[in-house]
Design the sequence.
């Protein structure tokens, strides 16, 4: 069985097929960079979140928790700092004016919206560049197919020019053209696999952020009820 020399087929291919192959190489390089980047990111997030949550729920005061959050790089820490800033605004308004029950409840609703917005911002940051993997997985097979179709067209043109349809004339051009489809699939398959993998990890992180926000909001609501009882 004869070995296939990819580099030899590339150099023998026409300009269009070469351009397609170089384009696929660019997609592949960027995709693998994103895959590595996301691997490091999710690994860091898991470590930072575990450390922050473990320390946060041991804090006796919000002021102590703020210091812990400022030293952390996890999304839960940033969500807490955003919520704490909004909570301070609510407290300052409560000190200057005698707020009615409705106004205090409105403050809790504002806190809830701020936490939800902070979650969305963190989710956007974490998911950055993931759409490129989806685009790579869906488009590169067609880019490779375009190179193949173009290469086959050139091969048939050569057949017409030589006036011969023998296997010796047809096979080299078609084999060069089919490399583009193989390259497109080789780029697309890892991109799709890792896009699904990191999308699931993103969903887990979003779930953890939502759980933390809900727990923090419940803590503030219990504090609000206890103050009201006083």
Sequence:
């Amino acid at each position: 069985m004869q070995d296939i020399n990819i580099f030899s087929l590339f150099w023998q291919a026409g300009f269009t097929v070469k351009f397609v192959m170089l384009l696929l190489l660019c997609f592949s390089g960027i995709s693998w960079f994103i895959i590595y980047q996301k691997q490091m990111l999710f690994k860091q997030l898991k470590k930072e979140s575990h450390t922050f949550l473990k320390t946060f729920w041991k804090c006796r005061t919000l002021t102590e928790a703020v210091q812990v959050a400022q030293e952390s790089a996890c999304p839960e820490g940033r969500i807490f700092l955003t919520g704490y800033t909004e909570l301070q605004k609510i407290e300052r308004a409560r000190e200057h004016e005698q707020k009615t029950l409705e106004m205090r409840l409105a403050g809790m609703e504002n806190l809830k919206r701020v936490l939800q917005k902070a979650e969305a911002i963190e989710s956007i940051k974490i998911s950055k560049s993931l759409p490129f993997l989806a685009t790579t997985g869906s488009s590169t097979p067609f880019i490779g197919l375009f190179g193949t179709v173009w290469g086959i067209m050139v091969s048939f043109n050569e057949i017409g020019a030589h006036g011969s349809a023998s296997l010796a004339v047809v096979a080299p051009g078609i084999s060069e053209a089919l490399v583009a489809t193989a390259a497109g699939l080789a780029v697309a398959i890892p991109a799709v696999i890792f896009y699904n993998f990191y999308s699931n990890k993103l969903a887990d992180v979003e779930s953890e952020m939502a759980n933390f926000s809900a727990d923090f909001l419940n803590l503030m609501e219990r504090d609000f009820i206890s103050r009201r009882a006083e």
The CA atoms of residues 147 and 208 lie 44 Å apart. The mean pLDDT is 82.
